[in-house]
Amino acid sequence: MSTREIDEEHGALFAQQEQLPKLPVPDLESTLQKYVESLKPVLSESEYKHSAHVVAEFGRSAQAQELQRRLKARAAEPGRASWLEEWWNDLSYMGYRDPVIPFVSYHYSYNDDPRCTRATQRAAKLISGAIAFRARVVDGSLEPDSTRTSALCSHSYNYMFNACRIPAEPSDKFRTVAYHGNETIVVVRNSRFFEFSFVRNNVVLSAAEIEQTLEQIVQTADAADAVAVG
Fold this sequence. Notes:
Layout: H1 28-39, H2 45-59, H3 62-75, H4 85-94, H5 100-103, H6 119-139, E1 163-166, E2 173-176, E3 184-189, E4 192-197, E5 199-200, E6 203-204, H7 207-222
Antiparallel strand pairs: 1-2, 3-4, 5-6
Helix pairs in contact: 1-2, 6-7
């Protein structure tokens, strides 16, 4: 296993990264105004008036101006693509101790596929589709998400595959590993963990072959109970 450098971005997926504008630092007045607006639904009228007064006083203080100056200096640091990213990842994900789903990340589900009559068949098709999508991320051929006028940042695609979150205090850590040589799927069934490679003899397994492997896992896992995890 080898680590994967994030600066190995290439292909169409990352071709426009260098041209993307940096995240701007909002004006102090705008930041304070939005903060005050966010308080209104959760405070009583008297509490809201008091908080609005305190925020207004803070906005006129030397401390507020200094903090704004530091924030702009952070955003201008060479090599820093975003002044917010590090803080956001730590406070909203790595250091966040409630379940990330649904409190931070959205939850989604797949529509039923009437062509699938077995759970393992459905799972195999989903895995097969994910493998095909992964291949386009790995070689960079996936087109970046975009608005009508410009591409969006593709940096997060680096953590979609071959990446994991490692528990730690006070904040968790992440690790990425090389794409090549780590073509594996992890399956949890009946509190038992299984791992299998989706590449055999340099050929990606078909959905039917993946289903056969999943069927074997189900039979093995259901044959004996395991110590519960979590």
